Amino acid sequence: MDKNTIQEQVIKTIYNLLENNNLKIDSKTNSEDIAEWSSLKHILILNEIENIFKINFDFEDILELTTVEEITNKISELKNENN
Hints:
With 83 residues, the chain is mainly alpha-helical. Helix content is 61%, strand content 0%. It has one domain (3-81): ACP-like (Non-ribosomal Peptide Synthetase Peptidyl Carrier Protein, Chain A, Orthogonal Bundle), CATH 1.10.1200.10.
């Protein structure tokens, strides 16, 4: 799976869980840019991403992954490790 496809799914997941399609989300968007992206929503977003991509983030990842790009890169890394 290429990074563009992963990123599209990450953005779609964020839109769905934040329940606001009017947000502008791109690769540089981070949790501090969007008021609706609270710490609880962050956990829910990453949990949903784990389910979608069938991966598991480490606790440190949950704390460090704050941008769409970082999340996308980590998913790609984890998917490549499993192949």
